Amino acid sequence: MDNDWDLETLAVRAGIERSQFGEHSEALYLTSSFVFGSAAEAAARFSGAEPGNVYSRFTNPTVKVLEERLAALEGAERCVATASGMSAILATVMGLLSAGDHIVASRGLFGATVQLFTNILARFGVETTFVSPTVPAEWKAALRPNTKLLFTETPSNPLTEICDIAALAAIAKEAGAWLAVDNCFCTPILQRPLELGADIVIHSATKYLDGQGRVLGGAVLGRKELMEPVFGFLRTAGPTLSAFNAWVIAKGLETLKLRMEAHSRNALELANWLEAQPQVARVLYPGLPSHPQHELAMRQQKSGGGIVSFEVRGGREAAWRVVDACRLLSITANLGDAKTTLTHPATTTHGRLAPERRAEMGVGEGLLRISVGLEAVADIQRDLARGLGS
Ligand SMILES: *Cc1c(COP(=O)(O)O)cnc(C)c1O
């Protein structure tokens, strides 16, 4: 493939493989297995002596289109698609880590990732130390001789804290560990972690990559030698992406750049408006100059992205009033959709945490998180204004 192509071209064109029919749009191969022309061919495919598809738990041509397209966008040697974002994280740790290994992870991770590390991996002898996303020195201090993986997500959810990817990559490199970045919030359109020194990029394709809230999917990307054991886990254990979901997501990528630019533009406009509302105590958005890490964010990302969090005065009661007054915004924790979504983290995504832990994280009772969609910003503002009493 032509490596000189721009991202928008790669998003539309990369990975296309036409069948004998010469179809223009990517074909959807709904088949669990593949047939062989002879016993010898079957043997060669199974042994790997001859390339080709065998069974869709291993490979599928539609899944391959998505993998090649996403690899081109992230600038990765290889992409391994998975059934969901969580199975991408699972495949990464199961493929690359063993009992006795240690992980250093950001305290600002997606809730299920924290559960996976603390409740499940710990049972298999992999321990995790959680540190501040914004203080690289804490990551360095947490390193142990058996530290194998540094794991982060930036911007974080719901506080939009920014991790310095290049600084963490340098710490990982010195320690002989790998840095994995969950790039779900930015997508390769706004941030390319491998260029900043990360070893592995993780995606929940359920969010912006699909972009219209239709299917679950995930992906792990990085150097060939790192992806080989990740793929090995997947083909044996089976949390493989379905061909149908791969097709939906691959078509979603065609509009990714347009969508991410629009999400960012709308989010910045909304964040500016929220900052001017007297009932709003603070707005957390990396694209605002008032964000504590605005400069780092603008160095590392092309724009602020589509997620805006804000704190209303008056705690839970005031926050719920905003949620309940909405007629347009969807009350749901999902994000990265064309439809704007609104959630109250303290009683939903972060509701299972102890109140002290939430307070320590900065997830207050008045905090609301918006995934800004593609509707007219004026309509989103009108919807929020009703509950804010603006
Ligand atoms: C949603 C999400 C995940 C998990 O993805 P699923 O597709 O729901 O399994 C992981 N990381 C981040 C940052 C997410 O937002």
What does this protein look like?
The protein contains 15 helices and 12 strands. It folds into 2 domains: 7-253, Aspartate Aminotransferase, domain 2 (3-Layer(aba) Sandwich); 257-388, Aspartate Aminotransferase, domain 1, CATH 3.90.1150. 40% of the residues lie in helices and 15% in strands. Strands 1-7-6-5-4-2-3 form a 7-stranded mixed β-sheet, with helices on both faces. Strand 4 (147-153), helix 7 (165-175) and strand 5 form a beta-alpha-beta unit. Pyridoxal-5'-phosphate is lined by residues 84-86, 110, 112-113, 153, 157, 182, 184, 204, 206-207, 216, 218. Pyridoxal-5'-phosphate (PLP) binds at residues 84-86, 110, 112-113, 153, 157, 182, 184, 204, 206-207, 216, 218.
Brief description of this entry?
The longest helix has 20 residues, at 256-275.
Kindly list the characteristics that best describe this protein.
390 residues, Aspartate Aminotransferase, domain 2, Aspartate Aminotransferase, domain 1, 2 domains, 7-stranded mixed beta sheet, 5-stranded mixed beta sheet, 15 helices, 12 strands, 15% strand, binds pyridoxal-5'-phosphate
Element layout with pairings:
Layout: H1 7-13, H2 39-47, H3 61-74, E1 78-82, H4 85-96, E2 102-106, H5 111-120, E3 127-131, H6 136-142, E4 147-153, H7 165-175, E5 178-182, H8 187-190, E6 200-204, E7 218-222, H9 224-237, H10 243-253, H11 256-275, E8 280-284, H12 294-300, E9 307-312, H13 315-325, E10 330-331, E11 341-343, H14 355-361, E12 367-371, H15 377-388
Helix pairs in contact: 1-3, 3-10, 4-9, 13-15
Bound molecules: pyridoxal-5'-phosphate.
